[in-house]
Amino acid sequence: MTFPGPRQLPFPPGSGWGEGRLLQDVKGEILEEWKRRVRSAANGLGFVRTEPALARFAPNLVDRIIFAGEEVSGEVLIPSARFIEGCTISEAVRELSLLRSTVQRVAARAGIKLSSHMVELVHHEIDQAIAEITAEIHRVASMQRALREEDEDRMRLALEAAKVGTWEFRPQTGELTWDARCKELWGLPQHLEASYEAFVCGIHPEDRARVEAIVQHTLDPRNGGTYHIEYRAIGLDGGEEKWVACQGKVFFDPHGRAERFIGTVLDVTERRREADFRERFVGMLGHDLRQPLSVVSFASETLSKQGLQRDSGELVRRIGRSADRMDRMIRDLLDFARGRQGGGIPIARKPLDLHELMQHLVDEIATVNPRRKIQLAVDGDGRGCWDPDRITQVFQNLLGNAVTYGKSDEPIFVVMVEEGAHLDVSITNYGPPIPESDRGMIFSPYRRGGRGRAAERAPRGLGLGLYIAQEIVRAHGGSLEVTSDRDTGTTFTVLLPRGHAG
Questions:
Q1: Measured between alpha carbons, how far is 298 from 499 in angstroms, rounded to an integer?
Q2: Considering only CA atoms, which of 428, 420, 426, 427 is closest in space to residue 381?
Q3: Could you give the CA distance from residue 28 to residue 23 in angstroms, rounded to a whole number?
Q4: Which GO terms describe its molecular function (predicted)?
Q5: Rounded to a whole number, what is the largest CA-CA distance in the chain?
Q6: Phi, then psi, of 169 in degrees rounded to 5
Q7: What residue spans of 204-309 are helical by DSSP H?
Q8: Tens of pLDDT along the chain (502 residues)?
Q9: Which of 19, 52, 282, 377 has the most crowded Cβ, counting Cβ within 10 A?
Q10: Strand 422-429's sheet: what is its strand order?
Q11: What phi-psi label fits residue 126: left (phi over 0), alpha (psi between -120 and 50 degrees) or beta?
């Protein structure tokens, strides 16, 4: 930046030359009182500011007044963007007007009598600052507008290349705006306006209730306002069924009302078709493998009863153990296929005492792992209606993970608490914490634990255990969540409604 030379004062040098030096001793008082007055004025207008917008510029401006008339280089004349970031012109004028009166008020209180020349100089410097800041705000705004337009052009080109549609919904007015890609996906002619009713009509009938429920959930400020969903769309012309992935964000006003809901939509039909094919293949493979595996299991069991020699008997037992492990993996594959294709894992509810089941599972694991300490605490009634086999599968998985990943010299805590119509079950171990980057994906299929050396002890499965456990809990109308840090350990919490036999 090129700085100007000495400033031209509004009056010729003479009496009052250097008079501003008298204000040097009260500079701090001027700035503090000015800040208080700015905050008070902002609060009166409904704004909340901890600092004035021009807090970083004001000290330099007061120096301009103090040293007026002296041979200064003028390095503080032009405000840079860093001094006025986020400041509007009206805000700048309001704050500088308050500084004008504050200088005179503090000077009078300190017994400093300002000459007419000095008062004129204060007005001149403040007016000059208003002009400079107004020009700078205009310059910064123009530059930001140009950059924003350039960014918008780049974003538009990127969205067009990726065939991503964009939309905006105004919940308070019901106004819905679609770009050309959204209209194309829904089969809406480009010259027609979109509407929420058109959006709903273009959703596959079997998915409409689910989509509308998630939209309403997202519009509730208590739920964070983040929207992510995949569903089937048939369009307004009843054309070919397609899968779309939508993401969005809700912006709320100060009263918590949904003001703007913006987002994107992407056609993911091909990806879903490929995923469906893979999952059907996995299901068929698992089903077809069960028959030859049952033959292997039957043969190993038969041979083990025939009094074989020691070495031969051990080989047969190894075959049996391997066959059991393969059977568990195949069952996981079939459960995974059912969960992904059939709308969830089927369950058969029966009366069950969950406290008794958990005690049995804890005793069973303690027998296999005699050096591990498992503490079970129960409170309230543990009776309800659940699928015994499926619930056993859930807690076997969670307890097995606690043994695998928990420190061998630290106990595992199992706490079961009655919460009205629900049972709250938490299982805590004190092993290495789950990395924060993994926590969001830990219930995703084909994910294995990765907690240091503990992971080396983990059985090498398919990484479906936690995914299937969560699907089973969801099938019971419950939830499965995890928290993990070094101080409080890793805790899996299962919330299960008691349900009823059916």
A1: 38
A2: 420
A3: 10
A4: ATP binding
A5: 123
A6: -120, 135
A7: 205-219, 269-304
A8: 333 333 444 444 444 446 677 788 899 999 999 999 988 887 776 666 678 888 888 888 888 888 765 544 444 444 444 455 567 778 888 888 899 899 989 988 888 888 877 888 888 888 888 887 877 777 777 777 766 666 666 656 655 666 788 889 999 999 999 988 889 888 889 899 999 999 999 999 989 999 999 999 999 988 888 888 889 998 887 778 889 989 899 999 888 899 999 988 888 888 777 766 666 666 566 666 666 767 677 777 777 777 666 677 777 777 777 777 676 666 666 666 666 555 567 788 999 999 999 999 999 888 888 889 999 999 999 999 998 888 998 998 899 899 988 998 899 999 999 988 899 999 999 988 988 777 777 887 655 555 544 444 445 555 678 888 888 898 888 999 999 988 889 999 999 998 765 5
A9: 52
A10: 374-379, 412-419, 422-429, 489-497, 479-485
A11: alpha
Q: Determine phi and psi for 429, rounding to 5 degrees.
A: -125, 160
Evaluate whether 479 touches 502 at the Cβ level (below 8 Å): no
Dig out the tokens for 361 from the structure: 């599972």
Distances (CA, A) of 433 to 198, 400, 436, 438, 482: 48, 16, 8, 10, 11
> What does the block give as tokens for 349?
């509810």
Q: Please give the Cα distance from 248 to 229 (Å, whole number).
A: 9
**How far apart are alpha carbons 433 and 27 in whole angstroms?**
54
Could you tell me if 132 and 77 are in contact, meaning their C-beta atoms sit under 8 angstroms apart? yes
Tell which residue, 455, 347, 432, 446, has the closest CA to residue 394.
Answer: 347
Amino acid at 317: R
Cα separation, 285 vs 369, in Å, equals: 34
Cβ atoms of 358 and 416 within 8 Å: the answer is yes
DSSP string, 295-306: HHHHHHHHHHTS
- In SS3 terms, 309-361 reads as CHHHHHHHHHHHHHHHHHHHHHHHHHHHHHHHHCCCCCCCCEEEEHHHHHHHH
Closest by CA position to 428, among listed 355, 494, 495, 361 = 494
